[in-house]
Amino acid sequence: MVNIGNKIEVYFPGKLLTLVKAAGEMAVAKGQKLYMVGGAVRDLLMGSPNLDLDLVMEGDAMALARQLAKGREGKLVTHPRFGTATFSQGEFRLDIVTARSETYSEPGALPTVKPGTIKDDLFRRDFSINAMAVSLEPTKFGELVDPYGGKSDLDRHLIRVLHPRSFKDDPTRIWRAIRYEQRLGFRMEFDSEVLLRRDAAMMWRVSGDRLRHELERVLEEKYPEKCLYRADRVGALQQLMPSLKADSWLLGRFSQARLASLPAKPEVILYLTLLAWRMDEEELKIFVERLNFGGEEARAMRDIPSLKQALPELAAPEMKPSAIYRVLERHRLHSIQAAALAMESTLVRQRLELYLTKLRFISPELNGDDLGKMGVAQGRRLGWMLRALKEAKLDGTVKTRRRERELVRKWLAEGKR
Q1: Tens-of-pLDDT digits for all 417 residues of the chain?
Q2: Residues whose CB is less than 8 angstroms from the CB of residue 10 and which lie 6 or more positions away in sequence, other chains included
Q3: Beta partners for residue 143, in sequence order
Q4: Which long-range contacts (CB under 8 A, 24 or more apart) does 112-117 make?
Q5: How far apart are the C-alpha atoms of 277 and 289, rounded to whole Å?
Q6: What is the separation, in whole angstroms, between the first and last Cα of the chain?
Q7: How far is the C-alpha of 105 from the C-alpha of 111, rounded, in Å?
Q8: What are the structural domains of the chain?
Q9: Measured between alpha carbons, how far is 325 from 260 in angstroms, rounded to an integer?
């Protein structure tokens, strides 16, 4: 019997270890069993623990959570409808749930759940390496519960599903399989990959919101292009949109995005806009609607066609900074960032980068109130002067507040606008 109690005691901070042991003792006092499950067990076995723990109780999880929180500092949030609770204390968190089994009425549907055993609870998980548990009973503390061979697969660096219907039941597991495989440097077990390729087309049954969530999680990875490349090769990427492709062009742009964003990691929205860059307007419309994108993500992607139409203007041999600004000012920041990475023309790329790093931040020192005090009435003339001041500042013809005031006086004397 494998026991990793020593790993728990080495890796867990003292307060967390005390809390976990206390929870195990409380469960035993109730005549019930408590386990730590899932990713926390996997990470412990790999020597990289996290402090967000999933605990599964063969019994009343809600009652245990309330007892555990009583008299302790921290925050307890309960979800009676689902039989779950979360107790947070400082930097760590315990999610406590009642062991349950799941059934699927049809492929891609959300599961129907009912109380079950720890073995039932592990069987509903996505992959064998996430289907392990550790007993928190005082007399069995740290004993590994591994009914589906998760440790063996972990040792062999394999991602394996638990049963042949796994991807059909929940096609979003396809994306999780790819993420784990690429993040951990593992490989898909042969039969699991056969099932994945077979069932990739089942993604059409999944809601756009769930697919969008999985894609966004892929784009949050350290090297998301690895996941996208793999998804392309197994036929999963095309299920989001047939024209999507993760080729050398995309891989190179993602890599450049990281270099351009150092030391910060590129935003998910920039990766997403690059992924969508080569779609035409109709494809973008379908993609945005299918995955139910909203907010700035949708705006950035919808801006791509009009920005592409405007970009040839930036190839003119001579352009003042104010002219560059006029071309780009009405476009979304993230679509411009994507264009700066996507364009082949060095000149166009340089002008996009000039806008991003300098021009968009330039404004005249005088504002509308200042011009009003100088005798400029509210209306079109005021708006024209503010705009003209901005363009003069962009082009470097005025550099000081004093020079701006002189220019306004000159315009007033000449009766401009």
Answers
A1: 889 889 999 999 988 999 999 999 999 999 999 999 989 999 999 988 788 899 999 888 888 889 988 888 889 998 877 778 999 888 888 999 988 876 655 665 566 566 788 999 999 899 999 999 999 999 999 999 999 999 999 999 999 999 999 999 999 999 999 999 999 999 999 999 999 999 999 999 999 999 999 999 999 999 999 999 999 999 999 999 999 999 999 999 999 999 988 777 889 999 999 999 999 999 999 999 999 999 999 999 999 999 999 999 999 989 999 999 999 999 999 999 999 999 999 999 999 999 999 999 999 998 888 888 888 888 888 888 899 999 999 999 998 999 989 888 888 887 765
A2: none
A3: 3
A4: 115/83, 117/58
A5: 16
A6: 88
A7: 7
A8: 1-156 (3.30.460.10), 161-302 (1.10.3090.10), 304-360 (no CATH), 368-414 (no CATH)
A9: 21
Radius of gyration for the alpha carbons in the chain, expressed in angstroms and rounded: 29
Q: Residue 174's Cα: distance from chain center in Å? A: 16
User: Pick from 53, 61, 68: which is nearest to 97 by CA?
Assistant: 61
Tokens at 205, concatenated: 């049954």
Measured CA to CA, the distance from residue 299 to residue 58 in angstroms comes to 47
Give the position of tokens 């411009």: 336
3-state secondary structure of 104: coil
Quickly list DSSP for 67-95: HHHTTSSSEEEEETTTTEEEEEETTEEEE
| Type of residue found at 368 | G
Structure tokens at 377: 């009435």
- Residue 276 near residue 284, CB atoms below 8 Å: yes
* Pairwise CA distance, residues 61 & 46, whole Å: 28
The torsion of the CA quartet 280, 258, 187, 104, rounded to 10 degrees, works out to -60
279, HSE (Cβ side, Cα atoms, 13 Å)? 25
205: phi then psi, degrees, rounded to nearest 5:
-80, -10
Helix (H) or strand (E) holding 378: none
